Each structure stands twice: as C-alpha cells, then as structure tokens.
Design the sequence.
DNA sequence: TCTGGGGTCCTAGGACCC
DNA sequence: TCTGGGGTCCTAGGACCC
C-alpha cells in the first residue's frame, strides 16, 4: 500500500489576519499585522483576554489567552480590536472553498485549520510545489498567509506546519522526526498541555525526543492510556483517516461570563434562560433532541467551576423543557457563593425525525409549535426580534452566545 | 476591578444487577 | 455460614484542543 500524503494548512494569527485583511479591503491605511495589535474581548464586560495577536505584539511577550490588562502592561500602545465571529466564518468558508479545488478529501479541523489528503498527487507532481501553489494562491486571493505542513499522517503534518511561520511550507516526514521534532520542548507536542508537561518534566522528560525514547511501560503505568498516546505521537505514530464528511456532533453548549457577579437565584435563572434560548434553537435547527442536560457554575471568588447534570427519559428539543431542568440542576448544585460564569450544555443527541412520544401530551405539542414559530421569526427578522418580556428591565442580554447564521459552524476537535 | 467560549475524550467512583 | 466479582450505567471532574 502506498504511503499517504497529508497536508495541514494553518492560518497564521487567524483572527487578527482576517481582521487586518478586512480593514485593508475597506480602505484602512495600516495593516494590523505590521503593528503591535491584538483581537481582544471587552474588559468592561469581563471578557478581556487576548484572542489573537500580531507578530510585532508577540515580540512584547504577549500570549494568546492572557488577560488584556496584562498585555497592555507589556505593551501600552497595543492596538486592540473586538472579535468578529461572522467575519471569521466568511474567511473560513472562503479558505475551505479554495482548498476543495485541490482535493475533496479535506477535513475541517477548526476555524483556521484543515487537513488535506493529497495522496493522489504522489508520483506525478512534487508535494512541495503543490503546497507552495496553495500557499501563494491563498495569499493572493484571500489576503492572508498560511503555514503548511507535509507528511504521511495528520499528526506529523500538523507538527510540521508549526515548524516555520508565517507564510511557509515545511515537511516532517517520519525519517525527519529525530532531526526536526525530537529537539523541541515537550510542550510543543500536540496533546501535551500544562498538566502533562509538568508530570513529564518531573520524570526528567524535557524534549519530545526524551519522551519518544522513554520506557513505554513506565509511561503507561504513570499516565495510563494518555501516556501511550503521547508516546506514539512523539514517535510520529498516528494513522487516523481524513474525515471529510465531518464527524457526528456529540453535544452543544453555551456559556457566558456575566458582566457582574450573580448573587441570587432569580438572576441566575434569567442567565440560564438566555443561554438555553440559543441552545434550544441550535438543537432544533440541527434536527436533534438531547437526553443529557448539564449546568456549570464558576465561582467569582476563586474561579473554580463545578457542574451538575441529569439524564432525562424522553429526549427533548424544547427550550422550556431544557430550561426547566437547568433551573432544577442549578438549584441543586449552587453553593450560594457569587457566580462569575454560567454554562448550559446538552448531549446524547438523537435525531428528531423519529419522534418517540412517551406520553401523548397536548402541552408538548403546543410548546413545539411555539418554539418553531419563534425560531422562524428570529431567522427572518433577527435574533432580537422576539425576546421574553422578563428580560426587558433585567440588564441582561435576552439571548446569550449569538446565533451563527451558519448552523453547521465547524466543530473544533481535540483528537485527530 | 486578574484568567473567554466552544468543543471532545477519559477516568474514577458509586449504584445496581446477576 | 458469606462480604466475591464482573458488567453496565451514571455523574463529576479533569485533561486537551483551537
């Protein structure tokens, strides 16, 4: 069997690049990528973290995910712009359309990453040439730069695209692993996060090469199946297929950091309703019902989260049914301390085609029709065209988590 | 006026059944 | 007289990704 040939395409500083291109196209004189700049959430509503940064901003030591105030201390003249998810989806769609011209075996991995199975070109064309074609074409037609990694599996292609940025193509074939990947610090390996790197460094494992050559038995004993997974990754072993049709959605959720601390039950319930509104609508748009409902709470004082979930007997897609369970879950779980963040998540999804009515319930029929009517009005006239009256004077957003106009918003997957 | 929001998968422990 | 052991389901929490 012939070796596979996989490309991993990664947009450089995606959110910031998308914004920069958009501004240039609308007459801006300055390219955000050339100055210290960042996409950052609003500090006033306590969403103030860095979502993406320019290369000049990176030179100040600014990191993605760090609080904006901290970034401003490192670089007082940092230019920040708010996030614009609708724009990112447009850029994402344009990227995917362009890549599809090269292969239909394409896996959308996130808003700014794709895997491509390019095995078809092997023999006739040189992989590097094709990759550079793609890179140049994206730059010319879409205005942003990408880094492309080339290898025989997804893991190595992904690690490869990190080797050189921005606007670059790198190979990381299995025979190049000892030379190109093993010298890197252990944190650079996909799936080694802060908790694992801490454990590994205590074991004297500091580079990817250290891990690759470590005793697998000891690793499995200490880190269970996780140890085996990252040991294989360190050795470049990974053989999952390109999932072109997109994986089954497992669950969906909505959460928010409230712009003030929530200290009473009624307010918490209101926030939960605003979260459930969009979850319910997304369920119905996707044609799903859920059977597990979960509420999560993050305390203001120590930022510790806890959660409570329930499995219900009859799958539902009704906003009010999900909300009813969320209120109950919240009341059972809340420890009474001020709340910073609330979340709702539904899972164990099943198709709503095969309706199974456990009881024939008139109220249920009515509820279903009401949900559908509201969905249709919101889709036609905008999400805020219909709003529950109890939000009017509450100071809270009636819908939390914004509705994407594209219901098939790409799912970010953590496992290749 | 410290640290977002959207996901997936794994594991541990308890309940329950045979 | 006994306190075995396997299997499954459920829940909470932790790990990772972008």
Sequence:
């Amino acid at each position: 069997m012939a070796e596979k040939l996989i490309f991993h395409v990664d947009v450089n500083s995606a959110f910031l690049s998308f914004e920069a291109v958009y501004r240039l196209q609308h007459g801006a004189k300055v390219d955000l990528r050339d100055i210290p700049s960042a996409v950052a959430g609003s500090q006033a509503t306590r969403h103030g973290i860095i979502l993406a940064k320019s290369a000049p901003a990176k030179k100040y030591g600014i990191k993605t995910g760090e609080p904006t105030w901290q970034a401003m201390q490192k670089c007082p003249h940092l230019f920040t712009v708010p996030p614009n998810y609708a724009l990112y989806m447009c850029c994402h769609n344009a990227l995917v359309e362009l890549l599809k011209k090269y292969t239909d075996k394409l896996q959308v991995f996130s808003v700014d990453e794709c895997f491509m199975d390019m095995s078809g070109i092997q023999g006739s064309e040189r992989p590097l040439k094709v990759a550079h074609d793609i890179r140049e074409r994206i730059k010319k037609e879409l205005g942003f730069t990408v880094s492309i990694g080339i290898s025989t599996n997804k893991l190595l292609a992904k690690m490869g695209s990190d080797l050189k940025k921005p606007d670059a193509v790198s190979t990381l074939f299995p025979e190049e692993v000892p030379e190109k990947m093993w010298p890197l610090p252990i944190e650079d390996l996909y799936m080694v996060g802060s908790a694992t790197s801490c454990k590994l460094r205590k074991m004297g494992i500091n580079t990817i090469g250290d891990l690759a050559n470590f005793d697998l038995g000891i690793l499995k004993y200490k880190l269970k199946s996780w140890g085996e997974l990252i040991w294989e990754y360190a050795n470049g072993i990974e053989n999952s297929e390109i999932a072109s049709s997109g994986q089954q959605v497992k669950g969906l959720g909505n959460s928010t950091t409230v712009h003030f601390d929530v200290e009473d039950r009624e307010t918490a319930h209101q926030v939960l309703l605003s979260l459930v509104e969009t979850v319910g609508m997304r369920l119905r748009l996707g044609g799903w019902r859920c059977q597990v409902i979960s509420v999560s709470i993050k305390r203001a004082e120590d930022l510790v989260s806890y959660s409570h979930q329930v499995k219900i007997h009859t799958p539902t897609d009704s906003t009010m049914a999900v909300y009813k369970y969320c209120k109950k879950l919240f009341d059972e779980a809340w420890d009474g301390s001020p709340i910073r963040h609330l979340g709702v998540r539904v899972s164990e999804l099943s198709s709503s085609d095969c309706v199974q009515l456990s009881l024939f319930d008139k109220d249920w029929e009515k509820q279903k029709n009401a949900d559908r009517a509201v969905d249709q009005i919101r889709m036609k006239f905008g999400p805020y065209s219909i709003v529950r009256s109890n939000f009017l004077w509450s100071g809270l957003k009636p819908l939390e988590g914004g509705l994407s106009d594209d219901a098939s918003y790409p799912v970010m997957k953590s496992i290749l």
Q: What stands out?
A: Residues 41, 43, 46-49, 51, 65-67, 69-70, 83, 110, 224-226, 247, 249-257, 303, 341, 343, 345, 401, 409, 411-415 of chain A lie near DNA strand B (CB under 10 Å from a C1'). Residues 403-414 of chain A have pLDDT under 50 and may be disordered.
